[in-house]
Amino acid sequence: MSVLEAEGFVRVTADSSNPMVANITAGSDKMVIDESGVAQNVKPGADPYDFILSALGACTVITLHMYAQRKGWPLEKAEVRLRHERVHATDCEQCEDENAKLNQVTKHLRLYGDLTEEQRKRLEDISARCPVQKTLVAGMKVKTVLEKEEV
């Protein structure tokens, strides 16, 4: 593991022999994003948006379980199915550009366990408070630092 990975960096590489495949290292985990079938309209594997949805979904179900455990609620299982779409700005009441498209994520939440309606509603509210969702909704600045290549 490199120093950057040990310091919490995620490393992503792609080379000219297969430029549509990105190899990812996060801690001891290794993942692949394969966009090689995009030109043929084939999806051979997870794409970058699937990883964003996965992060949001994982954060959501973990947040729900942490909250339910702290409250002593009988949440047995939390499941969230997510979809990313680009919707027309006309679907948005507060949009400035009517011709623009907005990124939208729809979360379908299922809660399993002997929960009251009040507990279910509270968990639905809590599902919007996971740190990843807060980050996505607030937006973020992305800073790029060009480094010299290693020899």
From TrEMBL:
InterPro entries: KH_dom-like_a/b (IPR015946), OsmC/Ohr_fam (IPR003718), OsmC/Ohrsf (IPR036102). PANTHER family: OSMC-LIKE PROTEIN, PROTEIN INVOLVED IN RIMO-MEDIATED BETA-METHYLTHIOLATION OF RIBOSOMAL PROTEIN S12 YCAO. This is OsmC family protein. It comes from Pontibacter cellulosilyticus.
